[in-house]
Design a protein that fits this description.
The chain has 9 helices and no strands. The chain has about 200 residues and is an all-alpha fold.
């Protein structure tokens, strides 16, 4: 389903295309899914499950909160790079072309990210409280950057944007100097990988 969405768009997909690609008989599909929308929602659920697993697996009690955020972002970008069709479904099709339930799942992930950033407000090194929209602005900017890379066919290269995502996400909370430091740390995390 994700591959066909990436190639042709959700509206243009016929179940027969998915069955042919998966090499499944129709009765197997019908046992698992009520139809095209149900199959698409299962793909969205797979994305969310993988994303939550990547994020939670990156957190460590031995690291600072911001180091854990860096590791979580890296894990998430690597997940999407490894599965570009799912990245396309998550950031392009679930947002614009699929049924409303897919978009509500998409936005629920951003509510969780917003809560994580709000929790990190306490780690501000004595700076003034950021505006209440800082978390949403950081997430929205990061989302736009990731979506642009996917739409341009560069999903496999998503981890390379880690330093930019870190900088944009951190600067409203910790200021320029700390955002630059954490952005450099993001580059260090990529060193030695194919994106570094």
């Amino acid at each position: 389903m994700a591959r066909h969405c990436a190639r042709r768009g959700y509206a243009e997909i016929a179940i027969e295309d998915v069955l042919r690609d998966a090499r499944l008989p129709r009765e197997v599909f019908d046992r698992h899914f009520a139809g095209k929308e149900d199959c698409a929602m299962a793909a969205v659920e797979e994305i969310l499950t993988g994303a939550m697993g990547a994020i939670s697996g990156a957190y460590s009690a031995d690291s600072s909160e911001w180091e854990s955020v860096l590791q979580a972002l890296r894990a998430l970008l690597e997940l999407f790079a490894a599965r570009p069709a799912l990245a396309n479904l998550a950031f392009i099709h679930s947002r614009q072309m699929m049924p409303g339930d897919a978009y509500s799942h998409y936005t629920s992930a951003f509510v969780l990210l917003n809560a994580m950033l709000d929790r990190l407000r306490s780690d501000q090194f004595g700076q003034a409280e950021p505006p209440s929209c800082a978390a949403r602005a950081a997430i929205g900017g990061g989302e736009a950057l990731v979506r642009r890379e996917i739409a341009a066919g560069r999903a496999e290269q998503l981890p390379a944007v880690l330093p930019d995502l870190v900088y944009a996400g951190v600067v409203p909370f910790l200021g320029q100097e700390e955002a630059l430091r954490l952005s450099r740390r993001g580059r260090e995390l990529l060193r030695g990988s194919r994106w570094g």
